[in-house]
Amino acid sequence: MPLIPYANLHQEYLEVKPLVDQAINRCLENSYYINGPEVKNFEQRWAEYTQAESCAGVSSGTSALMLALWAVGVRAGDEVIVPSMSFISTAECVSQLGAYPKFVDIDQYYTIDLDQLANQITSKTRAIIFVDLYGQTVDIDRIRAIAGNIPVIQDSAQSAGCQYQGQRVGSLADLTCFSFYPGKNLSAIGDAGAVTGRKDLIDIIQMIKDHGRKEKYLHELTGWNERLDAVQAAVVSAKIDYLDRWNQRRQANADIYFELLANCDHIQLPKLNPVSSHVYNQFVITTKQRNELKEFLSNKGIEAGIQFPLAMHQQPVYQTNIQLPVSEQLAAECLSLPVHAQLTADDVRTVSQAILDFVN
Question: What is the pLDDT of residues 85-127, one digit of tens each?
Fold first, then answer.
């Protein structure tokens, strides 16, 4: 393991080991594997935490997006507007339903450019997805005003615990999709996800995630097998009470970066949207010397990441002739520094000093 790892899942586990071990053992001792009380308990707790009408636990953040799109009525031939800078799932799920992702550039906060969004809506637009990239969200009131009657889906895979105007994400869009993939602010020990939001839509997702049924062997819809397994539900539930304190540690680590790197030449620090808190699933700087800096840090035992080296409209599967310059520049220059909750203040100072050494 590097001297300062990008993520430290083992240290996170040790911090909550008794609770996580109890959760897993409870599932094993009671043979809770699929559905059952552990999943229902998680769904109730996550709905309460996010202040959402309802919650459906699902098998991954990707399945959350796909099921949300289907629930709001996206079908083959429709268009769905998405920001180009995101993990591939955001567009991939649109394509899997036979619809077409319509890519929009991002703004200075690395989230969907709302000025461009308004000009991209057509008669074929069936939904809009916005992404809380790196851990902060957008002006949700404005995006809902722009959308009008078009369903709005929030991709909160990187923003669990983030607040918009003082209210936690999860109830502010028609549907909000979460990922609990290891390394997220709130993580499982495998793939796991959830959708929160309007109860009428969550009721549909509860059916289609489980072969289109409400009760065993009575199938009302054609669905999928995208259930959240009970072990993952139990583990995530065990960690919910830690999420806010872990986010506060991430924010404290980010504050140190801001202080120490404020006057660092050739390094651009992230801009903070005043309508949103930032939970720093990633702390992303940009520099034209991204690859050289990443290698320099690696040689000092510091692990950094790149989220993401290509915008979605640049991916081979989607390559188009459109130009989205802000997304393209971010993809070429972004570098994610360690910011996780198990990082110490001294670790952050060490990373910062290494960056200053590189620049100077």
Answer: 999 999 999 999 999 999 999 999 999 999 999 999 999 999 9
SS (H, E, C) the chain: CCCECCCCHHHHHHHCHHHHHHHHHHHHHHCCCECCHHHHHHHHHHHHHHCCCEEEEECCHHHHHHHHHHHCCCCCCCEEEEECCCCCHHHHHHHHCCCEEEEECECCCCCECHHHHHHHCCCCEEEEEEECHHHECCCHHHHHHHHCCCCEEEECCCCCCCEECCEECCCCCCEEEEECCCCCCCCCCCCCEEEEECHHHHHHHHHHCECCEEECCEECCCCCECECEHHHHHHHHHHHHHHHHHHHHHHHHHHHHHHHCCCCCCCECCCCCCCECECCCCEEEECCCHHHHHHHHHHCCECCECCCCCCHHHCCCCCCCCCCHHHHHHHHHEEEECCCCCCCHHHHHHHHHHHHHHHC
Q: 300-317, pLDDT tens digit by residue?
A: 999 999 999 999 999 999
